[in-house]
C-alpha cells in the first residue's frame, strides 16, 4: 500500500510565511548577531508581535479550527514546520523571537484553561538545569515551599534560554524533597519578581544571538495558582506531568535541526556543483565522486530525521502517546545535523572554515541541537525503556 507523505495544504501558508521571515529577516542579520553576542536583535520585534497575535486568534477561534478540516488542528505540526523554516534562517535568532520561548511550550502542555488564558500573552523561558545536574531532570534541587497562598522558591538555574529577555520563567522545583521526583512541579514566575536575579549571561560556542542566563531564586514568592498542573504529590504518576513538556518540545528541536541541516545541504550542493560534481540519484553512490557519495549519504539521514519529526508531531496532534517517537526524532536529527554541518565545513575547505560563508557558524550552532532538551545518550535511554518496556528504575 502506498503511503502519502505530502503535508495537508492547510499548512502551506505556515511554511510560506515562516520561510519568508527566515529568508528576509533572519538570514540577512545572522552574521551580525553572531558577532554581537548578548545584543538584543531588535529586528525580531515585529515577528514577536505577529506570534502574539496568532496565539490570540487561536484563543478566540478566529484561526483555522478542528471543525474547519474535520481533523486535529495540527498545532504540533505547525510548530515543527515553523521551526524548520525559521532555523533555515538562523537557530539562535529563532530562539530570540519574543513570545516564542520554551516556557510557552511548557505552559501549553501542562496549564489548565484558566492558566492558558492568564498566561496567554507572556514570553516565558524555561529553567530546568542546575549546577549539580544536566540531563537528569529528576535531580532538581530547587525548592518551592508552600506559605499560605504562595510558594516560596529557592535555588539556582543555569543555561536558561532567553532567561534575561523573557518576562516570565517556567521554573522546575520540588515541593517536597523527601518525595523524590513525584514532587517536582513547574511554576510560572514573573522575571520581575523580588528575589529573582539574573546572575550572568554565558559566552557560548554557537547560537550567540540567543541569550543564555544563570538565574538565582532567593525567597522568590509566587501565587499558588502559578503552579502548572496538579499541586498534589502523586508517587504513582511520578513527574509525568512536567515531563510531558518534552514530548511537545523535542520534535520542535528536531525540526530546528532539520532546518539547519537543510541550509547546510543546500550550500554543500552548490559547492559540489560549482566544482563540476553532478549529484546523480539514478547512479549508485559508490560509482560517483567521493564527495557526492557522502552528500547522498547525509541527505538520506536528513530525510529520515524529517520523517521521524513529522511522525512525532502527528502523534501529538492526534493525542497519541509519543514519548518514544519524540526522543527518536530528537536523537536522529541532533546527530544528523552535526554530521551534515561538519561535513559541509570539510568539503567547503577554506571557504567552509573561514567566515566567507555561514558554514562554520552553522557547524557551531548545530552542536546545541544534539544537547539541549536531552542529550543523545538520554534520548537513547528513553527509547530503550519504551521499546523494552522498562521503567527508569529498571534501566538507568
Automatic annotation (TrEMBL):
The keyword DNA-binding does not apply. It comes from Gordonia soli NBRC 108243. The keyword Flavoprotein applies. Its cofactor is FAD. Belongs to the acyl-CoA dehydrogenase family. It holds the Pfam family Acyl-CoA_dh_M. Residues 242-388 form the Acyl-CoA dehydrogenase/oxidase C-terminal domain. One of its GO terms (molecular function) is acyl-CoA dehydrogenase activity. Residues 43-70 are annotated as: Disordered. Coiled coil: none annotated. Residues 125-219 form the Acyl-CoA oxidase/dehydrogenase middle domain. This is Putative acyl-CoA dehydrogenase. The lineage of its organism: Bacteria, Bacillati, Actinomycetota, Actinomycetes, Mycobacteriales. Keywords: FAD, Flavoprotein, Oxidoreductase. It comes from the Bacteria. It catalyses: a 2,3-saturated acyl-CoA + A = a 2,3-dehydroacyl-CoA + AH2. InterPro entries: Acyl-CoA_Oxase/DH_mid-dom, Acyl-CoA_Oxase/DH_mid-dom_sf, AcylCo_DH-like_C, AcylCo_DH/oxidase_C, AcylCoA_DH/ox_N_sf, AcylCoA_DH/oxidase_NM_dom_sf.
